[in-house]
Amino acid sequence: MKDETSTLMPYYRNGLLYFPTKTVEMLHKNGLSKTIAQAASAGLSLDDEAEMQEVRSAVQAVLNQSAKDSAIYAALNNPETQFMLTGKPAYNA
Fold first, then answer.
1. Which of 1, 18, 16 is nearest to 66 (CA)?
2. How far, in Å, are 3, 47, 67 from residue 86 at the CA level?
3. Who contacts 92 (Cβ-Cβ below 8 Å, separation ≥6)?
4. How far is it, in rounded angstroms, from Cα 4 to Cα 2?
5. Is pLDDT above 90 for 88?
6. Which of 4, 9, 71, 93 has the fewest beta carbons under 10 Å from its own?
7. For the whole model, what pTM was predicted?
């Protein structure tokens, strides 16, 4: 599952946040607008708070309906992913 998880995780490159196609499709099915879904594939600016909030909401929707042992849950609930989405380190209390 680790290989599948890594193919679903977003990544940061050249100042933009990118989401893999399969992840974008899941986010779009869970409320991410078509425009922002396209931007998520092409690279999102972390400075656009409205876009990032919509992405975070769609991520939360996917997490809420995914099994905790699924690859998509592991990819989107990953501390690195959460840091990219929020700018805050994940705390495991």
1. 1
2. 24, 11, 22
3. 79
4. 5
5. no
6. 93
7. 0.90
